[in-house]
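Bit of a strange request maybe. I'm writing a small parser for structure token strings and I need a real example to test against, not something I typed by hand. Could someone generate the tokens for this chain?
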Amino acid sequence: MIKFIIRRILYMFFTLLVVITITFFLIRAIPGDPLASMARKLPEQTKLNYYAKYGLDKPIIVQYGIFLKNLILNGDLGESLTYPGRKVTKTIFEYAPVSGRLGIQAITIGFTLGIILGIIAGFNRNKGPDYVVMFVAILGISVPSFVIASLLQYFFTVKFTLLPTIGWGAFKHTILPSIALSFGSIAKYARYMRANCLDVIMQDYILTAKAKGVSKFSLVTKHVIRNAILPVITLLGPQIALVFTGSFVIESIFSIPGLGSYFVSSVSNRDYTMIMGQTVFISFLFVSSLLVVDLVYGLVDPRIRVGTGKK
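Reply from user aminoacidic:
Good idea to test on real output. This should exercise your parser:
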């Protein structure tokens, strides 16, 4: 297990290096630069001072080397080009917790309800509950999250005035955006769990357990869920990272001061340092979550021995 973790950590850093390298050169391949429109009305010498300050007057390979040096040795992601004086690291630490709180609630709601609905559908195949769950799943996949958010705002804030429309601070401000963000996850987890349950139910050991008179509760909790949930856990890894990039629409609708709005604005403004900083942050979350998912496999099903290929 220790060797596996060390090997995966090395793979993580190698993956991060590849992502950083590709992103660094891709964003600089776009014509223009972030200071062109800001500095076009300034004197020529002032423009040159700006370019020198942010290192944009150096060859691209030198800029890449400086970025890696500052990142590896000092953990410094640089200063925003669009907002001079604002450190990228400080911005991430300030606004990421907001997106993280919203994302964790959305993942918890989506995973919990999705698993429950999937189990209900799997044990009631071609019956009323199954049709209802599949209808909800189709809606969750087909209807965009911003449409769900608008509907939630209309019914719960305009028509019935139960929850606030926009804002951030209290728990009540997180309810509607969390539900809107989790709706697609509920559908995805429900479909996967239903399919896995149907597959597990038809296995010989399940039929044997039924023949031995095992109660339905024990059958579901000890046999079906443990084996059917493993493929679903795999989806959790990408979900953790995607909440930071996929929630910017929801954050805009509910006026939530999260990281999503900075991600969008940094791309449109060609804020190189902010793009790189958020890329490093999100990529680290993604590869770390994949490692956690692999470790959770062994906790959910102790028969799995990581790195040995044995059960």
